[in-house]
Design brief:
Number of helices: 9
Order of helices and strands: EEEHEHEHEHHHHEHEH
Helix content: 25-40%
Shape: globular
Structural class: alpha/beta
CATH topology: Rossmann fold
Number of domains: 1
Largest sheet: 8 strands, mixed
CATH architecture: 3-Layer(aba) Sandwich
Radius of gyration: 16 Å
Distance between the termini: 32 Å
CATH class: Alpha Beta
């Protein structure tokens, strides 16, 4: 059973799994841009059934600058002692992967486990470039624009560097109709496969899924579990 807890004044809320055992390791699930923890519920449920303890925070992506979002999440995770005394993994969709990398870099968890990123624009998104170039569409990106464009000179993004922990990247190559000429092929409708790569990644896999529906896809959930357990995707 899942319970919704409304965002507090600090801009961070949560969806938590209430019953059953505490799990063998914490897993922080971070949603993407203009999304919510609801999108990560299917993965969270699969993780709980597999013996993990999922934590699904809500955070503002449009009206809150990237670095402020990271600050608030770090505070909440520290206050809740997520990962204290046991391994903590991260599973993140889209922009959530960038947030996860920044949070890990800031907190430096002693027992950091693995990070799985789903369609994360590690190299930026050409679709964000297109929106940022338009005075009208630029407003859609809000404060997240500098973190999403392919020009990676935003201070918080430029400081991420290469991860020193195992990272698995899942990319999609089945876009919904439209926008095919904006993004280089192959892509998932919002992020090109090439842009999902990150230096030092332990594994990378491409699945026939679209960007928005990644967290809801059974094949994605299976690969997330495989990487958290084995440090590599199932092939």
């Amino acid at each position: 059973m899942w319970q919704r807890i409304e965002p507090a004044a600090g801009g961070i809320g949560q969806v938590v799994d209430l019953p059953d055992a505490p799990g063998t390791a914490d897993v922080v699930l971070l949603h993407g841009f203009l999304s919510s923890p609801i999108s990560m519920w299917p993965i969270g449920k699969a993780l709980r059934l597999a013996g993990f303890a999922p934590y699904l925070p809500w955070y503002e992506t449009w009206s809150c600058p990237f670095e402020d979002t990271v600050d608030k999440l770090c505070t909440v995770l520290s206050e809740r002692a997520i990962g204290t005394g046991r391994t903590v993994h991260f599973v993140a969709h889209s922009m959530g992967g960038l947030v996860a990398r920044a949070v890990i870099a800031r907190l430096q968890p002693i027992r950091i486990g693995r990070l799985v990123m789903l369609g994360t624009p590690n190299g930026g998104s050409e679709l964000a470039d297109f929106a940022a170039a338009s005075p009208i569409l630029r407003t859609v990106l809000g404060c997240a624009g500098p973190a999403l464009v392919t020009r990676r000179d935003h201070p918080a993004i430029a400081a991420l560097g290469s991860p020193d922990y195992p990272v698995g990247v899942i990319a999609g190559n089945r876009p919904l109709p439209g926008l095919l000429r904006i993004l280089p092929m192959p892509h998932d409708g919002k992020v090109s496969v090439a842009a999902t790569h990150v230096d030092g990644e332990a594994d990378h896999i491409v699945l026939p899924v679209t960007h928005t529906l990644m967290p809801f896809d059974r094949r994605v959930r299976e690969q997330v579990l495989a990487f958290l357990r084995e440090g590599r995707f199932a092939r």
